Amino acid sequence: MNISDTYSKRLIDSLHGKLIVSCQAYPGEPMRHPETMAQIARSAEIGGAAAIRCQGLADISAIKGQVKVPVIGIWKEGDDGVYITPTLRHARACIMAGADIVALDATNRPRPDGLTLQQTVQQLKSEGAILMADCGCIEDADAAVDAGVDIISTTLAGYTGSRVKTEGPDYELLAQMLERHPHIPVICEGRIHTPADAAKVIGMGAWAAVVGTAITHPMTITSWFADAVRS
């Protein structure tokens, strides 16, 4: 095991059984500012987050300067098809901005630069990147593992047309991924809205739980309460 492999293992091991907090704001929202996202990320770190997931080069850089925990970086471009770190260029830019781990779309949909998932992963791995594959179904997970990623996740379950969107976490897909791929970290991400949800996925064997909206998106959280009051 070389120095790079040792570093990767140590970093990934630090996430085992832990909470990862996703700090993202969407275009046009009041909190869409790198400094704001960095402040939220630091607050999450103080609260116990073992890592931060964030979007965009400015946010990655700002957050990396504020937290000591690992940063999982993505770069969203567009809102259709493959738009989460869609190309080799996007992934490299995330690394240059400070991402310790890069998450990328691991579906079988066409990628904007014409490369396959396997070609993208192989090139990035040759450059020493630590990669998290955002999957929408078990076939995505299979392909990502075959390509050589370090982590697989349920991030895109319910968003690609390959599975029905569940109200909460896609426990069924998580169970499938854990059973099919017991030797690679499987992270559960997507619609974890309560501490009980997070505890359940960890209890099922998830390497870590990623929570975003329920912690860092006050507009949505407020709407939950407002809807409950109105009803």
Task: Tell me about this structure.
With 231 residues, this protein is α/β, with parallel strands linked by helices. It has one domain: Alpha-Beta Barrel (TIM Barrel), CATH 3.20.20.70. 43% of the residues lie in helices and 15% in strands. The protein is built from ten helices and eight strands. It has an eight-stranded parallel β-barrel, surrounded by seven helices. The longest helix is centred in the N-terminal third of the chain and has 14 residues. It is globular and about 50 Å long. The model has no long low-confidence stretch (mean pLDDT 97).
CATH topology: TIM Barrel
Secondary structure class reads alpha/beta
Question: Main beta sheet: strand number and arrangement?
Answer: 8 strands, parallel, barrel
What would you say the CATH architecture is?
Alpha-Beta Barrel
**Top-tier CATH class:** Alpha Beta
Number of helices: 10
Global mean pLDDT: 97
Number of domains: 1
Write down the secondary-structure element order: HEHEHEHEHEHEHEHEHH
The CATH superfamily appears as Aldolase class I
CA-based gyration radius: 17 Å
Question: What does the oligomeric state look like here?
Answer: single chain
Strand content: 15-25%
Question: What is the overall shape?
Answer: globular
